Amino acid sequence: MTIEESTFPLDDGDMYVRQDGPRDAPALLLIHGSAASARSWDALVPLLTESHRVVRIDLLGCGRSAEPADGSYAVEDQARRVGNVLDRLDIDNTVIAGHSSGGMVATALAARNPALVSALVLIDTAPSVDAAIPQSITIDPSQWDNLTDDQLRPAIAAGFAEGFEIPRQFLDELRGMTIHSFLKATRAATDYLAHQPLPDRLATLDTPLLVLFGEKDQRVRPTSAARYRAVPGARIEMLPGSGHSPIIENPSHTAALLLPFAASHTARPENWRLARDDSV
């Protein structure tokens, strides 16, 4: 499998990009949520690269991308940066999947530049502010740099179904963020939904939509997935046993739902399948 890692200099900070899979295959862009990075898709990517050129981006303030002190974390600005990267990669008319608040960035990108997006997949993305489940355990910002694993785990356990073992990688990613980035990213997502609920935004777009939701989500009310029915033609699939992060908890089920949808909304290069068949 071909793997390529790059850093793209943009006006407000460098953006890290990773590509997996055949370069001549149809592109599939994956956008992570808040307090995460491109690595949150690690378990899912190997299931996608047989048929896609999988592109992952670390949003500003996350992973290996820049974290400028004065950078804007507004959802629309994150979408603008992603669009700039796609332009540099010469990618358009692609399926985009976003996990959690990454689905908001994907939506903003589709609204900003419809030609870049052939279809959207939202994975446990809150449709509105009131869909969020209040959390009884929070993180004290003043203690951010001194938090132990035992202190972090209860605070982020709601990101998974009850009883799911939190991956070491997830703890490391969260600890790798500064409290500045964490607070600005989470506030930006809330502000985006408060301004206009996601179904209302999506209903004005002519973009095919697949919504995946873990039935055991402890961060966003699973019943709120039904609100996406307000989007004409939207398809909603619930994942039994999965929490807020089915891309980590059940990547095989996630891929089984995502791949057929992506295939039905992907423009494949004319010689791509022939070239793949000839190589067998």
Structural account:
By secondary structure, the protein is of the alpha/beta class. The protein has a single domain, classed as Alpha/Beta hydrolase fold, catalytic domain (Rossmann fold), CATH 3.40.50.1820. It is built from 9 helices and 8 strands. The protein is globular, with a radius of gyration of 18 Å. The C terminus is likely disordered.
How many structural domains in the coordinates? 1
> What name goes with the CATH superfamily?
Alpha/Beta hydrolase fold, catalytic domain
- The class by helix and strand makeup works out as alpha/beta
Shape from CA axes?
Answer: globular
- Report mean pLDDT, rounded to a whole number: 92
Order of helices and strands: EEEEHEHEHHHHEEHHH
The CATH top-level class label? Alpha Beta
Rg on CA atoms, Å: 18 Å
What is the CATH topology assignment? Rossmann fold
Unreliable stretches (pLDDT < 50, length at least 5) are: 274-280
The N- and C-terminal alpha carbons lie at a distance of 14 Å
Widest sheet: strand ordering: 1-2-4-3-5-6-7-8
Q: What is the correct CATH architecture? A: 3-Layer(aba) Sandwich
Binned strand content: 15-25%
Helix fraction?
Answer: 25-40%
Largest sheet: 8 strands, mixed
Number of strands: 8
